[in-house]
Amino acid sequence: MAKQIVCGKLYASWCHFCKDLKSPWDKLILILNKEMPMACVVKDIPIGDEEDEQKRNTMLDELTTQLKANQKISVQNGYPTIFKLDDHNNVVYHEGERTLDNLYQFFTGRPFKHPGQNLIVSPGEKVLPRIAKKKTQRGNKKRKTWKKRPKTRRARKPRKF
What we know:
The protein is α+β, with helices and mostly antiparallel strands. It is 27% helix and 12% strand. It has a four-stranded mixed β-sheet, covered by helices on one side.
C-alpha cells in the first residue's frame, strides 16, 4: 500500500494569488486521488476570511490536533500557504512556484508525468499540448493569408493658389 499523503492549503477567498492557485490545486487533487485512492487527505481552510485573530488561531490549533502534526500549522509568508506532513508528522511548507508540476513533485517526491506523453517533465518546465490543425471546408488546404502592404509616405502634390 502506498504511503498516505496529508496535504493542505490555507487560503483567503479575497486573495488573487489564491484564486490563481484554484485551477492547478483542483487538478493536482484529482490526479493524486486517481493515482492513490484513499491515500490522500486534503484540507482546504479559508483561514483568511476569518477577521477575528482568536478564531483564526483556534482554527489552526484544531487543524494541528486533527492532523496529529508535531508542530503548529501556521500561515507562512501570506496566502496561500501550502503544506504537507512528512513521514514523521512534521509540517513542511511549500516555497517554490505554484505550478501543477512543482506541487506534484512537492507532495509525491517524484516528477510529474503528463498524461499522454512518454516523457518525464522536470519541475518548472512547461509542456504545451499539440494543437490540431484547423481544417477548412475544402479539406486540408492552407488558408490564404493576405499580407498587408507596408505603409509608405507619398509625396504630396504642390498646392495651387
